[in-house]
Amino acid sequence: MSDRLVIDDIDYLITCDSQNRVLRDSAIAIEAGKIVEIGRSGTVTGTERVSARGRIITPGLINTHTHLAMTLLRGWAEGVDLDGFLKKVWAAEGAIMDEATCKLGTELGAVEAILSGTTTTLDMYLHPHATHQGAVRVGLRHIAGPIFFDFPGLDSLEWSDRIAFARSWPKRLAEIGGPWIPTYLMPHSTYTDSPEHLREVSDLARELGAAIHLHISETIAENLDVQGRYQKSPVEVLEFAGILDRHTIYGHGVHLSESDIETTAKYNGAVAHCPGSNMKLGSGLADIGAYIDAGVNVGLGTDGCSSSNDLDMWQTMRMAAHLISIKRSPAHVDASSIFRLATIDGAKALGISDQVGSVETGKFADFIAIDLAKPHLTPIHDIFALLVFAVGRGDVTDVWVDGEQVVRDAKPTKVDAVEIMTQANKRVRSLDLLKESF
Fold first, then answer.
1. How many other CB atoms are found less than 10 A from the CB of residue 236?
2. Please, what are the domains in the chain?
């Protein structure tokens, strides 16, 4: 028998499969990074066995919109709206965010993510080659991709350089290795990328077989700006430019009109809902219930730590649930559906639900263990209510990505977290003088 790890004695196994099964006293077998068997405790054989007694096992959480390297700017832009946020953050990024710093910030973000139970992130940031190296080093399933601006930007790349870099992206991914990810291209937004350039990105995505991720309709001011420039809403610009012909996921998508929602559903588009960032920056309250009712795929995201301050998907689930209560009513909140937004529905939003997002045979072994021996997790009347409204990131004890245990006993296994934090604190000292100018 080849190496076959068995996670046995699982108190509760949350599958997030099509039947939304919750299994008791079960076991999972892993071979070559994939789930190969699910059965009753004590009946699944393997070469190595780990007991999960007193644990909940769930799919790893999926963060569908973030900027991991912005962990280095946590608390940098407080008390501002999106416009004020961008002014402060772009100044700080211009001061320190070279390739090495982007890698370091992403390592810090990846450690924070996996320790909290997140196994997959869709991460848009500068120097994606460097950020991906950092995340892979930590063990995260890290979906990165080339970014596009009309102007040179903080990375000093001209448009032709961006196109050339994007063409080299599949080769770069193969060289870096790590957990499998799909190919993504990431134009920043319709207010930083012209329709003509977006058309080029669409054509390139078709050539590379890539999906697309970008910021869309985060604020009313953004919608008015784009409408004034092109006499189209941001979503209409995407349709005009052919972006929606590829699998597309919007970052934020707070202010979508009824027509925008219909268009997005028609193209099987998706929205990465970031309630924490949206509320903190005063951007608005997305009615994701309306999006879901219309057939739009919705996942959850934290955004970056300079706007949301953390990468905590458990808090994000709570906020998403509470916003549905406010926008609709408490009767519209179903805890199991909220948990699926952070797992299998997030995978659907990313176009990878055939590979991750649920605990099923044939899928990558991305799952987490939660310790039930806590006062705040006692008693259990509704397991999904417990997960959404009571579990926190400090309850995650173990994390597997691609079948590899990247967190054991609440500590990362592949990197020295203390060393990364020490380097991060040292690097951001150079921002002290800039801070005084704001």
1. 20
2. 5-59+359-412 (2.30.40.10), 61-350 (3.20.20.140)
CB 204 within 8 A of CB 167: yes
E strand map for 222-379: 248-252, 270-273, 297-300, 367-371
Q: Rounded to whole angstroms, how far apart are CA atoms 163 and 158?
A: 9
User: Which residues on adjacent β-strands are paired with residue 426?
Assistant: none
Question: How confident is the model over 325-353, as a mean pLDDT?
Answer: 97
Q: Is the CB of residue 190 less than 8 Å from the CB of residue 216?
A: yes
b/e map 78-109, b = 16+ CB within 10 Å: eebebeebeebbebbbeebbeeebbbbbbbbb
Per-residue confidence (pLDDT) for residue 438, from 0 to 100: 63
Contacts of 263 (CB under 8 A, 6+ apart): 235, 236, 239, 244, 269
User: Is residue 145 within 8 Å of residue 104, measured between CB atoms?
Assistant: no
Tokens representing residue 182 in the block: 């799909």
| pLDDT tens track for 234-269 | 999 999 999 999 999 999 999 999 999 999 999 999
SS3 of 345, please? helix
CB 288 within 8 A of CB 298: yes
142, 136 contact by CB (below 8 A): yes
* Closest of 245, 317, 243 to residue 274, by C-alpha: 317
